[in-house]
Amino acid sequence: MIYLDSNATSQVHPEVVEAMLPFLTGQWFNPSSGYRAAKEVRQAVATAREQVADLINARPDEIVFTGCGTESNNMTLKWLARWVGRKESKVVTTTIEHSAVLRPCEAMAEVGYEVHRCGVDREGRLRTDEFADLVDGSRPGFASVMWSNNETGVTNPVAEACRITKEAGWAFHTDAIQAVGKMPVDVREVPVDFLSLSGHKFHAPKGVGALYIRDGVRFEPMIRGGGQEDGRRSGTENVPFIIGLGKAAELMKGELERGGHADVKRRRDRLEERLVAEIEGVILNGSREHRSPNIIHASFENCEAAGLLILLDEAGVQCSAGSACMTGKQQPSHVQVAMGISPEQARSSLRISLSIFTTDDEVEEAATAIGKAVDKLRSVQGPPGVGPVVVYGG
Ligand SMILES: Cc1ncc(COP(=O)(O)O)c(C=O)c1O
Fold this sequence. Notes:
Elements: E1 2-3, H1 14-20, H2 36-55, E2 63-66, H3 69-84, E3 90-94, H4 99-110, E4 115-118, H5 128-134, E5 141-144, H6 158-167, E6 171-175, E7 194-198, E8 209-213, H7 239-257, H8 262-278, E9 282-284, E10 295-300, H9 305-314, E11 317-318, H10 334-338, H11 343-347, E12 349-353, H12 360-380
Parallel strand pairs: 1-11, 3-4, 3-5, 5-6, 6-7
Antiparallel strand pairs: 2-8, 7-8, 9-10, 10-12
């Protein structure tokens, strides 16, 4: 099996599992309890908070553990909506956000908020001129711009968007779920107010995330109860998963310090090079310069991605068409539509995402398997636009 779908979720790092296990077996105490054994658990949670803070150059007390990236996004956006109020306010986001930002923004629009979705250019990057026109300091408001896109890996000019937003006196949130752990993210360099991250995108398990809230920025919780997380997100802490998130953050920090996923990038480039050289009609989508080191987003002319995915799965290669959420649906993803990619090209595109566990041999095998799958599909498929005549068999 060759796993090339790490933007959907990543393999849990064995050292993360090892770090978590004691907190599922012997050290299962409630960190809020008073005895010594619980104090050790409390200490371990504090260490995890430091590890996560370190990864993005934050302070530990600026980190709130959450149940996932979706929750981090929702608790920020719902709070900001409440803070700015419906009357006279303006909300600015982008056309390429993940549904974990788009859906809460749609819910705001349904109850009367003025929500704007700023466009992107052909390369998939935020149009900063349009963004600057939308941000309007004469009214209360906030903006949410993702750091790196989950489908294309393209990174936005977040520093610029943050500067524009804050100059207008608005709050700025970024969904950095596909960026944290894969590229340098520094909240002192880019002074965002809120930043969402999610463990399962960088080798921690699914079901744990965090929200960075800049010190001094006003915040009221979505989940109230026992007052855990300094009252910002109540609920008994998911200790083993928080420990796992901390360990993964520490490992990724080391990885970034050792050269910023240079090996991942080298392997990604090698795979891309082979696809372009060996397969006719390959179009690489999105900015080549501003993108995550682990991802290829490519269209294969006259090849339905749905058919390619099945052939690749049979060959033991796992990847995605568009984003994981779009798999099985034949519509082009909203991200590709926003980039101006034609429906035909969009339907023939694959998202191939590597991780630190992808090997040189896997890259070579995957390149060969993708080439064969494309040949096979083209040989059984009708002319462009007709779609697959026979997809499987033989
Ligand atoms: C950019 C982005 N935002 C939000 C999410 C949701 O994160 P989670 O799965 O932790 O809820 C994802 C996951 O696919 C994502 O890629």
